[in-house]
Design goal:
Layout: E1 2-4, H1 5-18, H2 23-38, H3 43-57, E2 78-79, H4 80-90, E3 98-105, H5 111-125, E4 130-138, E5 141-148, E6 151-159, H6 161-164, E7 174-185, E8 199-201, H7 204-214, H8 223-227
Parallel strand pairs: 2-3
Antiparallel strand pairs: 1-8, 3-7, 4-5, 4-7, 5-6
Length: 237
């Protein structure tokens, strides 16, 4: 299914809520999904994978347990949405800061939140002459996010063999992730356009998963609602 990113974000919000997240966390899921889509990654596919995993094991089992570093989740790993939302709330981005987060479920979903933190840092410093580079490395990928002039974009994303082996079922469900913020002066290199595309293609399996979760947010039909359905005797068409 080929659809607009705005429609993908709306579906992502309902799906996350239907999978057991609160509405506020569902908003975070929609934000992350849309950001990934705009930056050339299929956020809908990643969110569907994430919801299937966290729903299977229980949302509560993967929430961030403590702010004491290194961060950890429950016995099934650490939810990337939970970790990302906490990173956004703390919004701490210090010179050459480097941290490791352990056993992140679907670590790609952390990228939008790391970008947001760098944007907040540049705004706080009120210095557009700085380029904040965020280097992210984990088993599944290596990524570089550059923030210049208040705009954070994904400059590099290289999937590892573990990611490309997903179709054979060999991809790990979670992995440790290291990120580092670097403050440098402006370089000739430009941030890649944030809006790579306004549309995204969702494969049938992932679309079915998202729709299945989203359906949990719909009110069930009642006898009264059925009786009130349709135009009745007022239909003039």
């Amino acid at each position: 299914m080929n659809t607009s990113i705005n429609e993908v974000a709306a579906l992502a919000r309902k799906a996350a809520r239907g999978a057991g997240y609160s509405w506020s966390m569902a908003d975070e899921a929609a934000f992350a999904t849309a950001w990934l889509c705009r930056n050339g990654l299929n956020g809908a596919v990643l969110l569907a994978e994430h919801l299937n995993l966290t729903h299977e094991h229980g949302i509560q089992e993967s929430k961030l347990q403590s702010l004491e570093l290194p961060w950890r989740g429950g016995p099934v790993g650490l939810c990337a949405l939970s970790a990302g939302a906490t990173l956004s709330d703390l919004a701490q981005c210090e010179h050459q800061q480097s941290e490791t987060l352990n056993q992140i479920i679907t670590p790609e979903l952390l990228l939008p939140f790391l970008a947001y933190v760098s944007q907040r840092a540049q705004k706080k410093l009120n210095d557009d002459s700085l380029c904040i580079k965020t280097l992210i490395v984990c088993e599944r990928f290596e990524a570089h996010i550059h923030c210049m002039n208040g705009v954070a974009g994904l400059n590099k994303f290289s999937a590892t063999s573990a990611t490309t082996a997903a179709s054979s079922g060999k991809r790990s469900q979670f992995c440790d992730l290291n990120y580092q913020y670097q403050f440098t002066s402006h370089t000739p290199q430009k941030v890649r356009e944030v809006s790579v595309s306004h549309r995204i293609n969702i494969p049938a399996n992932e679309l079915e998963s998202l729709n299945r979760f989203a359906a949990n947010t719909y009110a069930p039909a009642t006898e009264a609602s059925r009786q009130g359905a349709g135009a009745g005797n007022t239909d003039n068409d």
